[in-house]
Amino acid sequence: RPRLFLEDRETSKMVRAMEMPLQQLVNSLYRGKDAYGVLRSASYWAILLRVFLFLRRIHNRQGLKVWLIEAVAPKLKKLPAVKNKLDKEMSGQLASFREKFGQELTQPRLRLPEEGMPEQDILSLMVERKELDTKHWKDGKITGAVYHGEQKHYDFIAQVFGKWGFANPLHPGIHPALRQMDSEVVRMVIGMYNGGDECCGAFTTGGTESILMSIKAYRDWALAEKGISDPNIVICNTAHAAFDKAGSLREALPDDDDMQIDIAHMRSLIDGNTVAIVGSCCQYSHGAVDDIEEMAKVALRHNIGLHVDCCLGGFLVPFMEQAGFSLKPFDFRVKGVTSISCDPHKYGFAPKGSSVVMFSNKALRHHMYCYLTQWSGGIYATPTMTGSRAGGPVAATWASMCKFGVAGYVETTRQIVGACRKISEGVRQMEGVKLIGKPEVCVVAFTTTKEGISCYSLADCMQKKFGWELASCQNPPCVHLALTLPTSKNADQFLLDLKESVKIVFAEPKGFTSTAGMYGMAASLPSSFLEDAAATYLDAMSEAISSVPAKAELDLFPLTSEGTGSECMAYANTV
């Protein structure tokens, strides 16, 4: 206590010594002025400070030019002439979308049948619909989406899923075995990420919920421990879109060479309201792995959280070292990592609806929990956002993980990462294209090198000529292939088809322009205009269609593996 008292007294002396020059400056500026003048001047300075902080916030997030455009665009759309034109265009787009979704209908039903259908008739229809949903990916030429592809594995998982299809983890007293499997999945995943006994987590319905729950934990932790009521998180603009759903962001830029987060820029964006920073291992767009060790040092220095998003590569990166691929530490071995998200429903080969969010300690996990203690229905508490959850994904995830085990996942990692490295090396040596980022895990992103030739045209050619479905990315323009077990078997064929596509597109650049035109237009449009087109697509996707509509006047364009694809083209032309 005496030592602390002396330290406090020394600190007071230091503060007083620094305060004296400021006090003298202020006194000299306002000497001889009346009290009202001093108050008015102080108010002006306060307003200028608020304006400066506001402009700095805009500069750090999207830039003044983009902010002005986004601010004006909604008002522009309300002008009668603009509104009428856009409404007409949206009607045409809706008809186009309906046509697309109506092309492969099987016995459409918009009303509940008056009499129940025989079970055999339903099963026959399910077989027909399953064949329809299989034909688009069975050749192993799509990016991501289908991660295993073997019917025998799907049949096994379906057996397990069906046994717990009507069970609800919300009721652990009724379903004790389901509760056991839920907790064991979390514990096994924590072990994959080198978490100790103090680490903990929760089973969620997908990567987005895992991300949302981690950010909720940081928000509530910061409010309780630091009194922060207006929190923000700092992410790279290559981080998953789910973080935009989570809350207030400050986006750092990636390094141009490897597409990893720029640590210096990230550090400059951290302020007194920052509660966490986010790294990816690996990120969706380019497959890059952020430097988690350096980010952890920053997090420790500022006493903030560090979330590592492993949703995409969740069942690859823990096994890469055993599979013969080097990777810098990224998990709980790194001091400063406080939470991790991981999806078994990708490379863990579990059914959709399974993800795990992990925390370095129980105190942080408590801030993730959702409580309602004064509800009329009794004290209500859930570990994550959802109340009722399907028990099928929990049991099936447990079964899939136990089926493959460490040896099984090491082998699938060897196949998938090996195919990724083979394709990336092939692209690196191929004329006319170049890699974007550093493909270390399962994603290979690339663009064209010839001026005037778009990478999107190359993707269109790959689809039309050879049946490959690539994902279109932007900022910077590129396309990517996310390797899975089915696509990893076609690595050599992909390189042959890509080389041939480069020749075709370079010889006939105007023959493949649909996606290129859409992204070219999108780059020059405010977000609110593009959001209208995306909303029309989502509206059409959600509609039940009774029959194939008449052919619309507008052309249809292929979808990307994530997002709305290039149907915004006609709308973009209108704008």
Structure in words:
The structure is a single chain. With 575 residues, the protein is of the alpha/beta class. 50% of the residues lie in helices and 10% in strands. It contains 19 helices and 13 strands. The strands form three sheets. It has a seven-stranded mixed sheet with strand order 1-7-6-5-4-2-3, sandwiched between helices. A hairpin with a 4-residue loop joins strand 12 and strand 13. The radius of gyration is 27 Å and the shape is globular. The chain starts with a helix and ends with a helix. The relative contact order is 0.12. The N terminus and C terminus are likely disordered.
List the helices and strands and how they pair.
Layout: H1 2-30, H2 35-61, H3 64-76, H4 80-101, H5 119-134, H6 151-163, H7 176-192, E1 200-204, H8 207-226, E2 232-236, H9 242-246, E3 249-252, H10 263-269, E4 274-280, H11 292-302, E5 305-310, E6 339-342, E7 355-359, H12 362-366, E8 370-372, E9 380-382, H13 391-429, E10 433-435, E11 443-448, H14 455-466, E12 471-473, E13 478-482, H15 485-488, H16 491-507, H17 514-522, H18 527-542, H19 569-574
Parallel strand pairs: 2-3, 2-4, 4-5, 5-6
Antiparallel strand pairs: 1-7, 6-7, 8-9, 10-11, 11-13, 12-13
